[in-house]
Amino acid sequence: GEITALVGPSGRGKGPAAKLSARFWDIGQGAITLGGIDISKIEPETLLRYFSVVFQDVVLFNASVMDNIRIGRRDATDEEVLRVAHLAQCDEFVTRMPDGYRTIIGENGNTLSGGQKQRIAIARAILKDAPVIIFDEATSALDNETEKYINKTVMSVKKDKLILMIAHRPSTIETADCRFEV
Question: N or C: which end of the chain has fewer CB within 10 A?
């Protein structure tokens, strides 16, 4: 139920902290624990079940908006996908697409803006419903109004979750319970 934020200029290690905590990289010394367990002792496949990660550079597939969000949880119903898409402010742009949520968005979402890609990734992360969500500059391509709405969304889903927000802009971490400047 807490949001912890790392904020500071580029080159200070915020991004690597996210990659280390989800064990995309292994640490050279020290320990990172999740629930008191050293993550180096947990199989990477098992560990990733506990994490949803939204990076600044979003990876999307040549599939529909609906399918790209559903990657968060393959067995999700259409209603569940649409609910999280609404929370992540996807309706605003998807309703203007020729086939709505069934529109194919091209390889790596090449028909979308950076902010639209980030909203799809945020919806995907919320849908996964993992106990830890990492937002690594996940709102960097959003305008101020959309970022404020996304922050409200994060507040509404934070119950029973640990959220790590990494950002350059202080406005991104206004809702954080704990802030660390690096």
Answer: N
Token reading at 112: 């979308």
Rounded-to-integer distance, Cα 65 and Cα 109, Å: 9
Per-residue pLDDT, 144? 80
Amino acid letter at 105? I
Radius of gyration of the chain (CA): 16
pLDDT tens for residues 129-180? 999 999 888 777 778 888 787 888 888 888 889 889 888 777 777 788 898 8
- Token pair belonging to 137: 């500059």
- Which residues are CB-neighbours of 148 under 8 A, at least 6 positions away? 171
